[in-house]
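Justification of resources, computational component.

The compute hours requested in this renewal are based largely on the per-chain cost of generating structure records like the one below. Each record pairs the submitted sequence with a full structure-token output. That output is archived, and it is also reused by downstream analysis tasks.
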Amino acid sequence: MVFSSVTFLLFFLPCLLILYFAVPARFRMARNIILLAFSIVFYAFGGVRFVGLLLASIMINYFSGLLASEDQDPQVRRMGVTLACVLGLALLGWFKYAGFFAEIINSAGGKIPVPQITLPIGISFFTFQGLSYVIDVYRGEAECQRNPLNLALYIALFPQLVAGPIVRYTTIEQEILERRETIRDFSDGTVRFLCGLGKKMILANPMGEIADTIFAQNTSNFTAGAAWIAALAYTFQIYFDFSAYSDMAIGLGRMFGFHFLENFNYPYISASITEFWRRWHISLSSWFRDYVYIPLGGSYCSVAKNIRNLAVVWILTGLWHGAAWNYVFWGIWYLLFLLLEKFVFGKLLEKIPSFFRHVYTMLVVIAGWVFFRSPTLGFAFRMLRSMVGAGSGGGLGEMVYYLLQYWPEWILCLIAIFPVKHLVENTLEYSVRKRGGMAGVSSFILAWGPKVFALAVLAISYMQLVTGSFNPFIYFQF
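The structure output for this chain reads:
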């Protein structure tokens, strides 16, 4: 089940809201049990046979957390955090990487069967959430959760269960039992959810149709125009698809009294690759920073060790996204430019006009998405060759066709990558503060504008939903 589906919008969510809010707020545990039960049902829609895996992951982290708590002996605490890491990563490794590493061994001369394993949805996300909880308990940064149902709610909470953001236990530790649902939060959460739905249905899906059509072609026939259109379409698709899911997750959480941290901060306005990764998939970047990079020594070490630490993080980041060489290369691609910015031309880059820094950043990002989206490395390199004019050339007609066929979506995508919303809000708030002649109108727009806009987005999105069939979420596969 996905958020942008008729089943979720017309059946699952309304039933949950009715049952949840029918229970008085003072019965917090009852509300939590309802939320947990619906979260398990939500996950079961993606594969009933994997519910047991999710429950096993929850129990591993629950008992590991008890062992890692501060009231245990140091040896027991180390055993607890080790148990969580070994068992959690073993499950992730088997379901996600067993086939990949078997193929590597066979390519090196080995002869072992390659297991055909179906990847459980969301396994990378809920594995990392569980690990962060146990590690934080071990470090003394979080209280050990003695109630297994409360920990299960944290790990299995449906808004962020299958595609993030990766929520730290410390972020919602108090809200699990002490949150207060308010009309303001519910209203703001609904608006955020509907805006995310609009990103998905109005922007990401049309761009995905373009990208999938062209990427499905034989690269020997690629023209420069087609290659660029495919790369740009996917650049828009993956941003609006993933940030849409994060928006909907944050909005749904807000509706139930949870306040998740932001996962995207307009990454396509970045003026360096370093800045880009401060703005893109913030929850994953911060997870690797806090649980891998800093424990390895971070940047407070020799240059050689710092390069090693960065290499470990970015190879793992690539592998986290998928068990394929193109994902590994994608991680190495960003590692290369991050090292160049850190040790070679970072200071020079700061002296270049911001426009050219932005162009440089986006060229690196677009090329990176070609590696990310391509089925093989060879495919990616052939596509990049076409983009720089080393392919069959031409393709102007195909480029014009896709630009004209989808011109409203292209324009909306170009607008939506910039913080227009913040600009409008700041302008209106400035008008209200100055108490000018339009202050009353500005206050009215600030109060009701987002709600009217969200309802209009809902109407358009619903029409797209009932008339279209293309509706996947990219990050479900990770």
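The CA atoms of residues 68 and 74 lie 8 Å apart. The longest helix spans residues 74-107.
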